[in-house]
Every structure is written in C-alpha cells, then in structure tokens.
Amino acid sequence: MRVACVGGGPGGLFAAVLLQQLPGVDGVTVHERSPEGVTHGWGVVFWDDLLEQLEIHDPPTAAAVRAQAFTWNDQVIEVDGDAVNVGGHGYAMSRRALRALLTERAREVGVDVRFGEPVEDPAALLAAHDVVVAADGVHSSLRGTSTRFGTSLQRGRNKFVWLGTDAVFGSFTFPFVRTDAGWVWAHAYGYDEHGSTFVVETTPQTWRALGFDRLDTDATMRALERIFAAQLDGHALRPPGPTDGPTPWQEFSRVRNERWVDGRLVLLGDAAHTTHFTIGSGTRLALLDAMALARELGAHPGRIDAGLAAYEQRRIAELADVAAEADASERWFTDVERYLGYGARAFAQLLVDRRHLVARRLPAVYVGARRLRRTLANGPLGTPVRAVTGKLRRSPTR
User: What is the pTM of this model?
Assistant: First the structure.
C-alpha cells in the first residue's frame, strides 16, 4: 500500500508516522507546501489524555513531546483586574517545535517528507497511490476536488486575531478588559520559556467602535498593548505576519463534512472538521484522527475500503459530542457581555460551566442556585471557585 499525506501539520505528519509502520505499507510521502521550518501560529495546548494516547500509539513521539512540553499550572479568569483562579494544569508547545519533532520522527521511520512541494495535480497523486490523506487544513484543496464529502463552511460572528508575545504566562489566563467601546478579552498561555500565545477576541460591534476595521497591523498591535497593558507588563505583541499590511483579524471557520472518504481520498484534521478555539482541541483532535486512521487500516489488512469506512464511521461518531460542546462554547463567547455583570467569581463559574444549558441560557438562575447551595452548606462567601466546584478535571478551554 502506497500512501500520500498532503499537509505537513501535526495531523498529517503523525498519520504518516503511524501508517509507515503498518505491515503491508510500501511507503508514505508527505507533501507540504511551506518550506521546512516555516509554520503559522504560535503554540498549541493539550492535556494528559493526549500524552497517554501518544504513549499507546508511538512511544518515541510521546517521549519527545513530554521532553519539550511547557507545563502551565492554574487557570486565571480576570475581569477588569479582579482575578479568580479556577485551578487545573496542562501543557503547551510551540507549533514550530511540534512540527520539527514530528518531522524528525517521520524521517526516522522512513517517511519521505517533502517541504516546499504543493500538490499541483491531485488526480495524478490519487492515481499513483492507494490512499491519499487530505490533511491540508480548513480550505483543503484536495477536499475541493470532490463534491461527495458534503462540505459545509460557516463563519463565526466574533472577531479574533492570533498573536504572540515574549511575555511568558505560567497560567492559562483569560483577561477580560472593559473599554469605552465594550469588552475585549484574550486567551493567553505560555508555550515555552520564551513566549506565549495571545489570542485576542471581541464582538464585531466593539471591534468597529475601537477602529480596528481601519487600523493597520502596527497600529493594531500598539492599541492592543494599551488595552492589555496590565497583563503584558511592558512586553510587545507580535502578529503572525508582516506589520506593514492589514491586520489578520478573522472570524472562526466552522467546517463539517457529511462524509470523510471519497474512494481512496480521506479527510483528516481541519480538512474534516474544526472545533472552536475556545475549547483548545484542534491539534489534539487531528492527532486522534491520525491514530484512528492507522488503527482502522491496520485492523483491515488488505481491505483498504473497509478500513477507510470504519475510520469515517468511528471518527464522525466520536466527534459528535465534541462538536456540540465546541459550538456551545462559541455561542457563549459570542454572547459574553451577557454574563459579565455577575461579578468576577460568578462569571468565572459561568465560563467554566458554559456548556451547561442552564448556565448558558439562564445565567441568573444558575448563579442564584449556586449561591443558595453555598449558603445552605454554610460555605463562606469568599470561597473561591476552586473550592466551590471541587477538583476540576476539565479546563475552561476544553
């Protein structure tokens, strides 16, 4: 079986690593359009469950990720300077470091990794391989060659921009800052000892009122540095591209596919699905896709079509609940100003429990019920969220 993976992100590279090691695989090639060492974005987050799955499927990759992972402790939700610690811990890594270690592992097991090589002729690629994995992102060119996937793309409402900074956040931090035009907030986390991801989000109304629709990139960075001066403590924000062009503000692209397989072409990662960045699972889900694809092809030796069908069925079913949670999280942040009037501690609890229907739809009822339970239990009014909720097993980002 000859395999081609199109897209050299974490999902495509790890799929290549696992597929190359299957019996009966004659060779795996990865085609990545960008040059080696060039990647977009800053850092990715993950938790113990991903490390456990990596250990099961490819121990050398798990060991490399553990060795390079940046550990963050606690999660801090800050509302106009009033901070609440909701506990928890997790890991992060720079995208560049993750791609580098997966590239090294791929080459180690014999994968032919080709950077700077976009696929010019998808039909020729499909004709030359038994399986072609489309791991080429939200706007997948390979997915676009077929109408059988039943692809839908929807744009989110809020504006966001993915930035970096050399301020190192040792805790996963959600600062919400009130401006004269409305609220602006960030999702900030360190990914190594030298830098952090700093995603800024706001409503389209506040975005326009603050003039971000008219500012260039450099002016936008300076404006955001003023808004988040307390959190950045003198550190600068860095855009993902040149500073002399338009600011790369985005709306979230929600990708869904009715089918993930068309013949021997199979979707993986963002080409197959996207989940809103507020649950922090994009990279994790792409790696889990890779594991499932290798597992199902390995479980159906000599029966490629059966293996691909099993992969499609399995992952669509497994992602249903995650997709619903991600959609709920996106809706919550779209209406975030509805929840900011309850005080920092109650707001933090609403953020943590935003997937719960009552917390999202009837916040006053939810907050009142929690206060009543605390009063009946004779808990002190100053009890932090950490104590009220018990040991949190899921991050506010998940």
Answer: 0.92
